[in-house]
Amino acid sequence: MSPSAAAVATNQSDDSDLQQTILKLANLKPIGQGRSNKSIETGPQLEWLEKLPQPTRNRFEKYGIDLSRGYPIIPDNKDIPKFVDEAFEIRNKEYPYIERGKNADPEKKALFGAATEVIDLTKHIGTEIVGLQLSDLNDKQKDELALLVAERVVVFFRDQDLSPQKQLELGNYWGQVERHPQAPHVPLNNTTDPEEIAKGSGISVIWRHFFNEFYGFKPSFKKGGISSGWHTDLVHEFQPAGITHLHNDTIPKTGGDTAWVSGYAAYDKLSPALQQFLDGKEAIFVSAHEYLDRENPLKGPKRIERAHPLVRTHPTTGWKSLFVNRAMTRSIVGLEPEESKVILEYLFQVYEKNLDIQVRFKWQPTKEGLGTSAIWDNRISQHFAIGDYEAEDLRHGTRVTSLAEVPYFDPNSKSQRQALGLSLD
Ligand SMILES: [Fe+2]
């Protein structure tokens, strides 16, 4: 071997030793829970099964959810992506998506005709439908519901007897269901394929009591309880979240409300000059979870980053929506960092401070033993889980998110108020 060939061979083996060491380090402890240093056990959680609130247990048992291995199921450490480039590659290519709301009867006769009452909770956002079971909807009604959600941003259904399986089926109708590589989920895999099992069921667990204790987060009244802050789900995806359906099956008597705010209305709050400036711009969005940078693994966790339009057009309504949120929008592409910071701060505040474009929902059902569903469109909204309940106030839910189209901005699209012929003052 020539001296230079020997040097190359040594370098290659150094390199592979280094990669091996990095991988070993990365596997020592599950990552991605950036706010906590607590070491956690991945996989099914047997100990937590005993703490499952009774109404949730009743629902799961009624619908044959297999809890024998434990609950919730956290993906095994070996299946959790460690590096940000690996996580970025998940669903990093276009897949077919059908915009269901586009096929719907604009008058929504099948959906409204089957309801006993349809209540708009505020002028600009939020509608409650009474007297309908989500599990009974036919495809025509599901299309009409997608249209209603696209128009009203969030739609609520109390007193639901809904199985996790049916919730997943609804989610699959509205788009590709997101299966999270890290998040706790409901066991629902009727497959023995280890790769499929590793991807999770697509039914995420929303259980603050579990999250706080398990991941070692310390809720504090002074810091806003266990609230989530204003955000939009899964904006880092290549095709970010469209419809999310959260079904709460254990609900405290008081506390644990959720608020939503309309992105259409946030856009309409801006001056025409600012609207024009923002139209066509892109922003950088980050993931909620963190991973290691392969090139610089000791530098600490890193989030997935992706560029999307900052004003997007909703495919069903054709209306423009301001697509930013404080938790996950980092910068505006093409601006100096200071410019971007000032403008984004203003845009966040438009969303957060205008109570006339928000709705706050109290989840409580009217009938004991039944749950409540909220179905919202992440393309045109932010939401905020209000953490004003204590550990003894039990709250548990299951969430299914349908991913939507590759976001786009149509320069010919109109704002909601423009399209509806309302005053732009
Ligand atoms: Fe969320």
UniProtKB/TrEMBL annotation:
User: Does the UniProt entry include the keyword Oxidoreductase?
Assistant: yes
Can you cite an annotated GO cellular component? cytoplasm
In this chain the TauD/TfdA-like domain maps to 118-401
Q: Name any cofactors this protein relies on.
A: Fe(2+)
InterPro entries membership: AtsK-like, TauD-like_sf, TauD/TfdA-like
What GO MF annotations does this protein's record show? 2-oxoglutarate-dependent dioxygenase activity; metal ion binding
Per UniProt, the keywords (alphabetical) are:
Dioxygenase, Iron, Metal-binding, Oxidoreductase
So what family is this one in?
Belongs to the TfdA dioxygenase family.
Q: What is this protein called?
A: Alpha-ketoglutarate-dependent sulfonate dioxygenase
Please tell me the species this chain comes from: [Candida] railenensis
